[in-house]
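Narrative summary of target 7.
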Amino acid sequence: MKTGVYPCYENQFEIGASAETATPIADMETFGVSFDNGVEEWTPYDTEGWVRRLMTGKGITISVNGKRNIGDTGNDYVDGLKMKNGRNAEAYFGWTFPDGSKIAFENAVINVKNSGAGDSTGVGPLEYDVMSNGKPIYTPAA
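Modeled conformation, tokenized:
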């Protein structure tokens, strides 16, 4: 198992209709991760004003920014979801961490936010959020 610091490019992503058909997504440059936690709060009399809390829910949003690359299978797959709604906007999304562990989102909601719009001299962007939809599958590093 790998240890120590690492460059962010060692994180790898793949997308497709299923794990078997998933492919890498070319020309992605940055990503950010947001954990959406549901926390219930209450203040019973016996805690003398101190709040009690319990984490009752989880969600993950991965925001990805890069360039639109026409002809790349993964990039085309993401872009192809921009006009879809409902269950048609869902996809398999896999994230392999630098240590070799992996998290798989079987039915992630893919929220395409920008495809090709920008400055006249800029390279067309592809920007999207991958939003968890149910509990993901975590596989530890081998």
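The longest helix spans residues 73-79.
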